[in-house]
Amino acid sequence: MSTATTERYTVISADCHAGGSHEQYRSYLDPAYLERFDEWRARYRNPFRDLQDDTRSRNWDDDRRLTEMDADGVVAEVVFPNTVPPFFPTGVVIAPAPTTREDYELRLAGIRAHNRWLADFCAAHPERRAGLAQILLNDVDDAVAEIRWAKEHGLAGVLLPGVAPNTLEPLFSPTYDPIWAVCAELELPVTHHGGGSSVPDLGRYPWTAAMYIMEVGFYANRALWHLILSGVFERHPGLVFVLTEQGSSWLPETLDRMDALHEAMVAGHFGGELGPSPFVLPRRPSEYFAEHCFLGASFPPPADAEVFHRIGIDKVMWGSDYPHREGTYPYTRESLRRTFAGWGEADLRKVLAGNAARVYGFDLEALAPIAARCGPTVDEVATPLETIPADATSPAFTRA
Amino acid sequence: MSTATTERYTVISADCHAGGSHEQYRSYLDPAYLERFDEWRARYRNPFRDLQDDTRSRNWDDDRRLTEMDADGVVAEVVFPNTVPPFFPTGVVIAPAPTTREDYELRLAGIRAHNRWLADFCAAHPERRAGLAQILLNDVDDAVAEIRWAKEHGLAGVLLPGVAPNTLEPLFSPTYDPIWAVCAELELPVTHHGGGSSVPDLGRYPWTAAMYIMEVGFYANRALWHLILSGVFERHPGLVFVLTEQGSSWLPETLDRMDALHEAMVAGHFGGELGPSPFVLPRRPSEYFAEHCFLGASFPPPADAEVFHRIGIDKVMWGSDYPHREGTYPYTRESLRRTFAGWGEADLRKVLAGNAARVYGFDLEALAPIAARCGPTVDEVATPLETIPADATSPAFTRA
To answer: CB-based contact (8 Å) between A27 and chain B?
Structure first.
């Protein structure tokens, strides 16, 4: 074989999910909550298919996880949560915020157990895992303290919970400035993952789930304009913000709309009916995006990847969404061929690894030996996929 | 002149705004509320520029309104509200729902005064005006009673208020079935106008208005999937629904997304995590749109008009948005030339008048003499616009 055929890509997934079992979380939980945890656990019925069957051990079983990711050609991962932490009503990326002080305190104990489990999970393979600490937004002081704990214990970033409208302060509220400040100070990227919505109870009507699916993208995407247009990046020049698993094609159009709105504001085209003295950013919204923001593009089909060039090749990070059903596992190699066969190697190395290394602090040299063993070859990815695997269900295969 | 050069279009605006002055509303108000009205009026400060200066009489001055619309080439209008009714905090299309019983009762008296004013305003020129009755969603029995009153007094449809999330029941709630039922029974189209949002207080932060502008489209558009996907048109086969002043380009893509979601639901691709026994519509979402829904496309720039063919030429109604600053007045003729110069006459007659006549009950024969006097000629509209009027501010001119 020539050098070209054996040269391999380093593939980092900027979107994977993991979590402890309830037994594991129990061992990380503040003992003051153990009795209530056992009561809660006895009552809790998990609604997730993939946390009931034999696939669930992918969340915590080191051997299984590494074996499967190796076979899939993925050498490192950004670790989002997946399992249901103690005292949560459902998975964390879709759970509405706690509404009572008691519920808040219990759930805070729950995410602390997760974060402590996660620090150990990542420390077992530190070159391969960048863990994101969970926080809650109900109490900013508590959130700041948890973020400091996360930094001290090797976690690589902070995950914002989904924010449903009119329950907590919106993300554009200055209430959250101490969170942005500490993340900038500690150089922890803030990541927002699709999943929140304005649908508080998915089982309320038989059609509520359909509403959720229609709206979940919007409720993720809006974090971008909430932060940019309220001046968060103007006040926190060191802050890095990542939008993950919430599509790609909406982004250029949204930046255009923000820039047009900014231009209108600069020109003074605002009536008093929209509030007194509107705040006008000193720079264009797209400039803040270019300097501060990144997109975690999970299981991108070809049409999404076409948009990456408009967004900026330095701004986009590929993700597998392992171990979710909509993710590319076990067909990541095929998915890369379908989506990226026509791409140049230099650009693709950024999207598959370079950008994630820069944002989340992966050491590409430490990953090189693993990639040399199991990464997809450059020639392989450059070969267009002729046949989609028959049992592939990911949008990476089913969408144009 | 040949016949061709003198033949004219009948132009109906499916989106105009009018309302009484506070003095007029006072005369229509239930006398039980007069004392409180005078107190409220003494305190109320109107935030709208165009309700403070000398343009405000366009809302109620018959002579001025008809003279200006004639000059603009528009012979008839669907009348949405504009001024601030008694006891409202702001204009009705952007006002959040009342949150206390007392506020609700006062505002109900306010919109009843408006509806009674509107019935007289329309009766003065019945062939030229189709008025939309305002309702509130806080009390469904009250809303149904007001809708019956509106039908008996010649109003042509019902305007839904904007629904902010998590304050009232969402539009997909079965709570509202009696409203859909009475509108279907009385053959009154239900119209939803852009303006609601999840931003309850536009003046709260200096950047809140920017959030409103970024999100107002979504909070309007979502009424479409809330009604279709919850089966409203399945339960109410006679119901007609109109989406007005909320863009056009989002619509085909949204119908595609709904159809794809429906296809996935039919195939059973729903996990238990999204709710038990999801409701699966017996027909595709786009079929309900085709049978029940219409788009009120206000001040469309050329790119919006290109989408009309994808939406369906029988489904779209042009609107001027008179007397708003973003509307096409006084340059409706120029706007029609810019947007529609390349169109065929038969299609354009539907978009400019035929569809609105069908939906809101205008009598095209009764309008013909007025159109013969002041409508734009077919040849005029077919002549591409070379120079945009220097003081034109409508998106009809400023957008591609």
So the answer is: no
